[in-house]
Amino acid sequence: MAITTEETPAAHGAGPTGAPPAPAISLEGVGKTYRSGPGTVTAVHRIDLEIQQGEFFSLLGPSGCGKTTTMRMIAGFEEPTSGTIRLAGKDVTGVPPNRRDVNMVFQSYALFPHMTVADNVAFGLKRKKVPSAEIKKRVAEMLDLVELTDRARYKPSQLSGGQQQRVALARALVNRPSALLLDEPLGALDLKLRQAMQLELKRIQREVGITFVYVTHDQSEALTMSDRIAVMNKGVVEQLGTPAEIYETPATRFVAGFIGTSNILTGTVDTVSDGWARIGYGHGQHVLAKGDGTAPNEEIVLTVRPEKIRLSAEEPDANLSRIRGTVREVVYLGSTTHYTVRTVDDTDIVVFQQNSSDASNLAERGDTAWLSWRPEHSYVLPG
Amino acid sequence: MTRLREKAAPYLLALPAWIWLGIFFVVPIIGLLWMSLMTGNIITGFQQTFNVAIYPEVISAYWEQILRSLGYGVSATLLCIAVGYPVAYWIAFHGGAHKTTYLLLVLLPFFVTQVLRTISWKFLLADDGVVLGPLKAVGLLPEDARVLSTTLAVVVGLAYNFLPFMILPIYAVLEQVDHRVVEAAYDLYASRFHAFVHVVLPLSLPGVFAGVLLVFVPSSADYVNASVLGGTNNTMIGNIIQSQYLVNNAYPTAAAITFVLMTILLVGIFSYAKALGTERVMEVQAG
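^ Those are the sequences you sent over. The predicted structure of the assembly is below.
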């Protein structure tokens, strides 16, 4: 079945002039500082974000990075100490949560324990004084969408964790909000169920076409579902981009380390030619990286993903980044093998090698091996 | 051997309580019933005659006081809810780091015995006492205004004396209410009022239920408030029982009234539990 939103994106904020629709959510210089004892703690430093209509947007970061505070400010549970929050172009700073057209899916679900599943889902519509015939119809549609029609008369305590999760989702979505805020909604589920729910959430989001803002500390979850991700750390957005951009071209050392596995290399630039910086390690070993703005003798930090590196016994081509080392660890994982190789300057580099038919058993512990990768796969990180 | 011990352990641990209940509750109750069916007087002694007629006799003689006691009990209970719920709510949701202090303040007056506290009210509310005296002096109240010896004095006294028994169970339940559930209600377009009516209040009903039992039963059976704060028109059934026992030494009559009161209260409690639906209340708690 298809659920359609009542309002088309253009109905939000876009004038008759045919201007592009206002973003579903926009934050301008939004910050939050708490008083804590004699001093203050800044949870969020002046963030600027624009989340588009129909986008699946994730706020990703470790606990305490400010992602939940940011979401709670969008929902209206916290007031920003600076900046402006707009929903569909309308300034809602200072508007209480019950008068904001966004709904939240809480981490602990926060279902009403004394109400049936159907009453939980109908709660928001009843408050909005929707006619009861329409409430009935929309609740039924929504329970159908989350596949809980046969549980309508159950109490939340009689449901499994995954089912409660879907009730929480239905309870928010049934209101057809302009955006849905999800606070680590899958955190309490076990791995298998979590993976199934990730796909389920993505399917539901596609069907209803509502903007989703998803808060998570789980990078694989964010990569799987999001159209765009804002990686947050210590109250600032470190990088904003599509999953591929964030994974392939991490902007900061934090992002490189937080998303997936990254090898961090440091070295001194020998030469810069044609925009490529070269770090030499002697004996034909060197690393090349896109070096705009780097100068010889400069100390730089660069990153390369483990799956971009090739392990070989013979010397690789000289126009690749290539470095030699001793294999210190070999971990066989079925479809891939993970090698840890220590280089001449005592850096451990992790290499993921696909176990295709012609590439198994490339090296054993104690072997000396060459590592090589294409220059465009390493990125110079700031600082 | 050890398995047997393990199985017996809970029963053994419960044994002191059972013995206690047996000696100090079951035996006296049976004794009371036995006594109520006797005839005679304190001088010539009491003989067991299975005088069942005593029950209709005491009911027809004292129905007025019985009804008044139940009325006072209900009024005091309602007053306790009206005063106690906001207090419990405020401590649970706005007490912050000082919740324990506020609870202690609620309980503090109850470290003094009930009789002394009630007599203090008599002193405070005396016709020319510290409250009424000045009000009369400045002409805010007529010269013959009084609080003592009125129904109001007794009901307010009862409510005052049993207030903590309403506040504590309501507080205990409100304290357990998940704040995120309340936030969810705000998020789903509920005003503060609707969030309270549709979420907080239903979730706190088990506490109100417990508080009603804890206040209604002892206040219906109370005699201290009526004798200290009330007048001759405010006699409660507790006062009758007390005077029949201790003044008239009419033990069978006193025992029979006691039984009638107990029966009424038990029937009342069960029908109340049934009407409100204990199962529903329990379910909320489980959720």
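Chain A touches chain B at residues 75-77, 96-99, 103-104, 106-108, 110-114, 123-124, 127-128, 155-157, 171-172, 175 (CB under 8 Å). Chain A is about 20% helix and 35% strand.

Shout if you want it in another format.
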